[in-house]
Amino acid sequence: MSAPLVLDLDGAVGPLPGARVLPLRAWQDAVRFGCGVATLERLARELQPALDTAHGTVMLGSGDFHHLTWPLVRQAAARHGGPLQVVVLDNHPDNMRYPFGVHCGSWVRRVAALPQVARVHMVGLCSADAGTRHCWENVLGPLRGGRVHYWCLGVDTRWARALGCGQAVHGFADSASLLDAFAARADAELPVYLSIDKDVFGEDVARTNWDQGRFQLADARRLIDELSAPIVASDITGEISHHRYRQPFKRLLSALDGQQPPDPNVLPLWQAGQHALNAALLPLIAAASVAA
């Protein structure tokens, strides 16, 4: 498989053997956490030459950049030419309402609207964002239409039936039951775009600066090993980094989302855990992938 492609927006991705690194830190303040659609499109155009050449998993850096998955899926879908399923391991649904463009918690509905994407599966959700208290913040149209499915762990999903989304919101008590059901989904034979936000994992696996889920590395390994179709493209996000925004509006939004700057005394240890997890995930993805 081709070597990883690092979008170096925040300096958080550690050394990866053979990786191609794109220096993009000048974009960090503009696109981190959220941005206007026009800004994201400008970045996508800058990335296009690198994406058009052979590459492996795209490394995005902090989970604050997860909305970059939208143009990456669009490019992969256009290259592949046929219908895809997008499988996202994430602690959050990333399908929330956001009126100011697109941000790291709102990009999923845009991916689901792509004509080549048959369905988006959000797997491993433990966040309250998928529960009853925050159900009104979710964009319901893609759920009602079956274009987005939530696969939740320990989340109260009773709201979904009342709001007409019961067929797309699946709740489980443990990861083994979730993975059993996920393996039997109707679209299992469709080629896969895989996106991993490492906040899906428990804090004993790797630390992020978002609230975290319950997946273990063995759960991710099982999911990838049991995919019935090849991975045609992939990305990884969820590195640990911190940025002080120049824009007061972004500082406010980040604070409202509960992000705290990592303790500089433990940051190197957390980053080492992140790098070790990357080293474990990349070969698993490569083994299940076709050449990009």
Q: What does this molecule look like?
A:
It holds the Pfam family Arginase. This is Arginase family protein. By secondary structure, the chain is of the alpha/beta class. The protein is built from ten helices and eleven strands. The strands form two sheets. The chain has a nine-stranded parallel β-sheet with strand order 2-1-4-11-10-5-7-8-9, sandwiched between helices. Helix 6 links the parallel strand 8 and strand 9. Helix 8 runs parallel beside helix 10 (267-287). The longest helix has 21 residues, at 267-287. The relative contact order is 0.17.
Structure annotation, total helices: 10
N/C terminus separation: 8 Å
Rounded mean pLDDT score: 94
Q: Which structural class matches the secondary elements? A: alpha/beta
The amount of helix comes to 25-40%
Q: Please give the largest β-sheet.
A: 9 strands, parallel
Poorly predicted runs are none
Coarse shape? globular
Main β-sheet, spatial strand arrangement: 2-1-4-11-10-5-7-8-9
E-strand count: 11
Bin the strand percentage.
15-25%
SSE sequence, one letter per element: EEHEHEHEEHEHEHEHEHEHH
| CA radius of gyration | 17 Å
Nutshell version of this structure?
The chain has 292 residues and is α/β, with parallel strands linked by helices. 32% of the residues lie in helices and 20% in strands.
